[in-house]
Amino acid sequence: FITLIVMIGGLTMFAVFTGVVSAVMMQRLKIVMDVKNLELDELRNHIVICGWNRSGHLIIEELHADPSMKHYPIVVVAEFTETPEHELKRIDLSRLYFKIGDYTIIDVLESVGIYHAARAILLADATHPRSDQDRDARTVLAALTIEKLHPGIYTCAQLLDRKNNVQLRVAGVEDVIVAAELASHLIATSVRNQGSVDVLAELLTVQIGNQFYNIPLPEQWVGKAFWEVSQLLKDEFDTILLAIERQANGNRETIVNPPKDRPVMLGDNLVVIARSLPQVAGGKS
Predict the structure, then answer these.
(1) Could you tell me if 178 and 225 lie in one domain?
(2) pTM above 0.85, yes or no
(3) In this predicted model, which residue has the larger pLDDT, 14 or 139?
(4) CA distances, 29 to each of 26, 34, 36, 111 (Å)
(5) pLDDT value, residue 32
């Protein structure tokens, strides 16, 4: 009888202890979630990532490795069953937020501060099993919604099928990435030019060596020939000029390796290779 009482008492104490611990943990989780939601309301000039797949953590690592972007808050919104903090062990999570929800819905986009965001990245979402066509359709729908809510935002979208690019261009999405195409081009390029993949691998990451940068043309260089600007950049900033980017009839035009005598124009941007962002004075966005 005494043994039975002891056993019942022990079980009761264990149940009470478990209940208290669970209550404390739930309260702490609620406080954390409330704080996070409050912070989301206050975010400005942040980056919103819609959707998640195996490349998500690599994108965030690259953004955090860039000195000019590592202070940007990042909000990831997707229909997570479990948020992927374990994939981001090398990332400072204090500036990273996760929102569980359907990013094709206006209320969800508003809850992550889309009106105040500086950039939006749309990934081919893999949080739930869907066909490639359905994944692209959700990307297109989200892009249309984001551009409608915040026309001034910069948007980059990942597609699985190039044929779905038309709607994104009409919506005003600035850049579209078809990952399978890029991978195929990289493989073919490495076969045609052995060793070139090492060059591309360095240029496509901010974590080592040289990278691509897009900088505004300094006003004092307007009217100079391409080769003159190229020489100035190399002499003064140890930077290589690759291309000119300009607006033509409302569309962006990128002229890679133009003729040496082609003049640069007011409003042009310069696409360059450098070890860090060249601090060229007099540029005008």
Answers:
(1) no
(2) no
(3) 139
(4) 5, 8, 10, 19
(5) 39
